[in-house]
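Weekly puzzle thread! Below is a chain. First person to post its structure in token form gets bragging rights.
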Amino acid sequence: MTTFKISKTVPETARRNGALRDGSRAVPEETPVAFSYGGSTHAVMMATPGDLEDFAVGFSLTEGIITDPDQIESVEIVSETIAGNLGIDLQIVLQDEENDMLRQRRRHMAGPVGCGLCGIESIEQAVRPTPDVSGSKLTLSEEDVVSAVALLNGQQPLHFETRAVHGAAFYVPGRGLIAVREDVGRHNALDKLVGAAARAGFRGSAGAVVVTSRVSVEMVQKTAVVGSPVIIAISAPTALAIRTAQAAGMTLIALVRGDEFEIFTHAERIKSGAAVDVA
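Winning reply:
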């Protein structure tokens, strides 16, 4: 497995106790990561260069390029140094049928960490249909919601080191967090999580997605693709994210602070002092 450094210690001058002092601190690496299918670049994302196999699978799933991780025949990680900086190309080989489908709808885009929709070719692509997750029987207790965020806060080593990355996790009632991924981009962290879960054979309908970021529409869409009926976030949602979650039958919980939180859609999944069910 190819690995790269995901953080770096750099010199700094900090003002502490009323005085400037020289010191150092850790910062996350940010690297252009290209997704290439059949030898052609499909997208380039600025990302943390870790968990790249998960990233390749998760991105391919959430972008609708594949519907099952078995449709990827191989992932080769190719790196090069460009102007003194690392660049990574994820060369993904798909089965023939998926390659043909991708060629028919080929698009190129460049997505900086703050925007997961940059470069798409039409409004229709931006508001593409979101899978319906209303059939999931999953319910959570109020304590599950609070615990999910508290657990994620304790399982983000890169964030603790740098204070500059997002986290995404899957929470299953009775089991806790079964996977956690981090990245400088919130969409990337979720894609890596989706890929990790898919590679492990985890059913998204069995748990909730937990994120440290705000909830935008693409975060709801990615959560629905993996089949999870609940997204829990530390920050606030957008109006479009709320409308999309409502239509998809997804419970959207945000602004989790300690034991307080706000439920914006499908509050019936959250039970107070009652037993919960796992789909």
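Puzzle host: Confirmed. Bonus trivia for everyone else. The mean pLDDT is 90.
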